[in-house]
Design goal:
8 helices, five-stranded antiparallel β-sheet, 21% strand, Helix Hairpins, alpha+beta, SH3 type barrels, elongated
């Protein structure tokens, strides 16, 4: 059998549709070109990230949008190559979508939300976010339908993209690298408030994870029921580790307060018991 006869040999024939060996080879060539283009594009973005010409989240967003577009183009070209009538296919798909109706509306909502996430970049890969149930984690993946968030317990949560669009999401990393946090402290009445303020600032300066600019500061909040209430505010660019930073601060504060005889009081209550006189019996 000659080469041209081999390439034009019909492997599948159904009505007007036929699939030859040459069609399959062309599809594989297009597939190889597509994969090569995607790999080159990935290397290009990785290089720009290393040179700090683009941030990781933006690069990921642009890469995924282009990647999805390239795969759609590949699928359309492949289908056209093997002789599939795209007009008939689109008409059939529309009828199928209408038939499925409400059954796929949630999936379609997630897909549209995924496109919006990638285009708007309000939430990007690498961002620290807080979602419902006070889950705080780092975004590790944004797909067309779902996204992945890795929390502080190193547990990956897979959530539909519609939740990141339609529900309240706090993005600790949005448009800035440093995030502000605070630690609450209560000291006993009669304590030297100037000394308390100085010790709190010292504790913050001794913590390497806390930024010096913006500088930490102390706020004298209120005269509490059993304590003088303060807040130590600080900035860090390690928002994901904020709870560990707060914990180290509390250790340091407790140690310094003990060294300077500053008491951290516990809640106290005064009870007044009124004894009633027994009623006289006649």
């Amino acid at each position: 059998m000659k080469l041209d006869e081999l390439l034009n040999y019909r492997l599948i024939e159904f009505g007007k549709f036929s699939l030859t060996l040459s069609d399959i080879l062309i599809v594989f060539v297009i597939l190889a070109i597509t994969i090569a283009v995607l790999k080159l594009m990935k290397k290009y973005f990785d290089r720009r990230i290393r040179l700090k010409k683009i941030d990781k989240g933006s690069a990921y967003t642009i890469y995924n949008l282009v990647r999805y577009l390239i795969w759609i183009i590949f699928i359309l070209i492949a289908l056209d190559t093997i002789g599939v009538n795209l007009n008939i296919m689109l008409a059939g798909s529309a009828a199928l979508l209408v038939g499925l109706g409400f059954g796929i509306q949630h999936i379609f909502n997630d897909l549209v939300s995924g496109v919006i996430l990638l285009m708007e970049s309000n939430v990007k890969v690498g961002d620290i976010v807080e979602i419902e149930n006070n889950i705080v984690g780092r975004v590790t993946f944004i797909g067309l339908r779902t996204s992945k968030i890795n929390d502080r317990n190193d547990i990956t949560t897979i959530i539909p993209n519609s939740k990141l669009i339609n529900e309240k999401v706090i993005n600790w990393s949005n448009e800035q690298s440093a995030t502000r946090f605070f630690v609450k402290i209560g000291v006993a009445y009669g304590s030297n408030v100037e000394l308390v303020t100085r010790l709190l600032i010292e504790c913050s300066k001794e913590n390497s994870a806390i930024l010096t600019a913006p500088a930490p500061f102390v706020r004298f909040n209120d005269f509490g029921e059993s304590s003088l209430d303060f807040q130590l505010f600080f900035w860090t660019d390690e928002a994901f580790l904020s709870e560990f930073i707060k914990s180290k601060l509390r250790y340091s504060i407790d140690k310094k307060f003990r060294e300077h005889n500053i008491q951290i009081p516990f809640p106290q209550r005064d009870l007044h018991i009124i004894a009633q006189k027994p009623t006289s019996q006649t």
